[in-house]
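Hello,

Our lab assistant flagged a job as stuck in the queue for most of the afternoon. It eventually completed. Since we weren't sure the result was trustworthy after the delay, we are filing this so someone can double-check. Below is the sequence as submitted and the structure that was eventually returned. Let us know if re-running is recommended.
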Amino acid sequence: MNFYLKLIIKILERSMTARDSQILKKLKAGYDLSNEEKNELEEMIDNLI
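-- returned structure --
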């Protein structure tokens, strides 16, 4: 896993809204995300900031 992916996972793990998300589980398992999931991930990150 590259540095940025690990960083995103750590940030999402500490987020109350993203902690139980399917996207986080997929990222941790190493699955590729669909375009829809990537958009949802982007929205989650935007909501953290």
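-- support follow-up --
The delay was a queue issue, not a problem with the job. The result is valid. The chain has a mean pLDDT of 89. The longest helix spans residues 35-48.
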